[in-house]
Write a structure and sequence with these properties.
Elements lengths: L3 E9 L3 H18 L3 E6 L4 H7 L5 H7 L4 E6 L9 H13 L4 E7 L17 E7 L9 E4 L7 E4 L5 H18 L4 E6 L7 H13 L6 E6 H10 L6 E4 L1 H14 L7 E5 L6 E4 L16 H14 L2 H16 L15 H10 L2
Parallel strand pairs: 1-2, 1-3, 3-12, 5-10, 8-9, 8-10
Antiparallel strand pairs: 4-5, 4-11, 6-7, 11-12
Helix pairs in contact: 1-9, 1-11, 5-6, 7-8, 9-10, 10-11
The chain binds 3-isopropylmalic acid (IPM) and manganese (II) ion.
The site of 3-isopropylmalic acid (IPM) has 3 residues, from helix 4.
Length: 353
């Protein structure tokens, strides 16, 4: 009997539903080919629901989500909702409550994808960034003093626990070993200024490194990482970093791989329910136009299949994406400039499965 997986879908806002449709198409195609089944359950969560009902993310839904094999997310974000409400109320709440303590973001240059660093080849840009996903400046510690007066003080603290940092660093070492590319792990911090937080990271990194003698360890300050991601991306294999630095360098890295249209991410709880999403937002101005690039979402779908154990299907999808791009039929990674519609890009990739 073939295996059945239960996947929760959160298509969300803006162009989210359009890209998730293509992702579901690809996963269903690969499932048929490789003989497993996927039951998708749709959840109406996002800005549209919030504006209609005032509900952000009911606790009961969080409890339900804990029972799935994976969560496949399109995009959360609505132009009519004040910044912070949906981000904190949905995205960060899910990451924290499901303890998805790793944010995993692969960066690779596919064939025929234009990168601003034009002379780099596909083999020069192939790395993966491990971002701590439940602590740091995102933990929400801090507050106001004398709010709305001319003496206002705002404090936002970065929380770094030895437990949280160590499990993230250990995940990164394991991943570097499993990936077996250059066996190189770079810790990205800011030891020259953040003498407490980055020090804890460095000590945890050094201690865990003793268990992985085959891995080459490297350290770089976050500003230098930004510079080298552009200048010498081939230096990087796996990078591990805190929540905010990870947020920033993965946007930069997304650009060198050709933009948000190809950049996928996973919010991983290695022992629980993980959530996979395209890194870009809900692109409200393209909503309903069928012009958004679904490749990031399709890649996120491949990451989800890899995570639940369907390694061959994940590889099949990656190969199909490579072939679709090699065909030269997709003219650009940008919304509206692909020369094909969202649906046609999905169909093209499906045709190579
Ligand atoms: C990301 C996003 C989120 C983050 C926002 C939307 C809260 O930028 O997934 O990188 O900062 O983590
Ligand atoms: Mn971000």
């Amino acid at each position: 009997m073939s295996k059945i997986y239960k996947i929760a879908l959160i298509p969300g806002d803006g162009t989210g539903p359009e890209v998730i449709r293509e992702g579901v198409k690809i996963i269903s195609t690969v499932a048929k080919k490789n003989d497993f089944k996927v039951d998708f359950v749709n959840y109406d969560i996002g800005g549209t629901r919030y504006l209609k009902t005032g509900e952000i993310l009911p606790e009961i839904i969080v409890e339900e989500l804990k029972k799935f094999d994976g969560i496949y997310l399109g995009a959360i974000g609505h132009p009519d909702v004040k910044p912070g409400i949906l981000e904190k109320g949905i995205l960060l709440k899910l990451r924290f409550e499901l303890d998805q303590y790793i944010n995993l973001r692969p960066v690779k240059l596919y064939p025929n994808v234009e990168t601003p660093i034009k002379d780099k080849k596909t083999e020069d840009i192939d790395m993966i960034i491990v971002r701590e996903n439940t602590e740091g400046l995102y933990a929400g510690a801090g507050g106001f003093l004398r709010k709305d007066t001319s003496h206002e003080v705002a404090i936002q603290e970065s929380i770094n626990t030895r437990f949280g940092v160590e499990r993230c660093v250990r995940y990164a070492f394991e991943l570097t070993k499993k990936r077996a590319k250059n066996n190189k792990l770079t810790l990205c911090g800011k030891t020259n200024v953040l003498t407490y937080a980055s020090s804890l990271w460095q000590r945890a990194f050094n201690d865990v490194s003793k268990e992985y003698t085959q891995i080459k360890c490297d350290y770089a300050n976050v500003d230098a990482v930004c510079m080298w991601l552009i200048k010498n991306p081939e230096w990087f294999d796996v990078i591990v970093t805190d929540n905010l630095f990870g947020d920033i360098i993965t946007d930069l890295a997304a650009m060198i791989q050709g933009g948000m249209g190809v950049a996928a991410g996973g919010n991983i709880n290695p022992k629980g329910v993980s959530m996979f999403e395209p890194m870009g937002g809900s692109a409200p101005k393209y909503t309903g136009m069928n012009v958004i690039n679904p490749i990031a979402t399709i890649n996120a779908g491949a990451m989800m299949l890899e995570n639940i154990g369907e390694l061959k299907s994940a590889k099949d999808i990656d190969n199909a994406v490579v072939k679709a791009l090699e065909s030269g039929k997709i003219k650009s990674m940008s919304a509206g400039k692909m020369g094909l519609s969202t649906t046609e890009v999905g169909d093209l990739i499906a045709s190579y499965l």
